[in-house]
Amino acid sequence: MKYELGRCLLRERLQEKGMSLEELAQDLHYKPEKLSDFMENKRIMPLKSAISIAVTLGCEVNDLYELITSESAVN
């Protein structure tokens, strides 16, 4: 099964944790603009960033994006 990334769910994960974008940026030593770009789907999180964000927020990497499944045809 093939997966595509849908929209970023970082905003929702921050709300669940009760954390602001600025607090997360400070914890990770990132610029808030970088995280904002992820949230607005202007940039896709590199795996290393996604792991750091997930660990900090206490969630799984898979929880940071909507995952869209598609069946790939095998000929």
Task: Please explain how this structure is put together.
With 75 residues, the protein is α+β, with helices and mostly antiparallel strands. It contains four helices and two strands, in the order E-H-H-H-H-E. The protein has helices at residues 10-17, 21-28, 32-39, 47-57, and strands at 2-8, 65-70. The protein has a two-stranded antiparallel sheet. Helix 2 (21-28) packs across helix 3. The longest helix has 11 residues, at 47-57. The chain starts with a strand and ends in a 5-residue tail after the last strand. Pfam families: HTH_26.
Radius of gyration over alpha carbons?
14 Å
- Spell out the helices and strands N to C: EHHHHE
Low-confidence parts: none
How many β-strand stretches? 2
What's the helix count? 4
What is the 3D form? globular
Averaged pLDDT: 93
Q: Which sheet architecture does the biggest sheet show?
A: 2 strands, antiparallel
Strand order of the largest sheet: 1-2
Structural class: alpha+beta
Strand content: 15-25%
The helicity comes to 40-55%
End-to-end separation? 15 Å
Domain HTH cro/C1-type: 10-64
Protein name: Helix-turn-helix transcriptional regulator
InterPro entries: Cro/C1-type_HTH, Lambda_DNA-bd_dom_sf
Pfam families: HTH_26
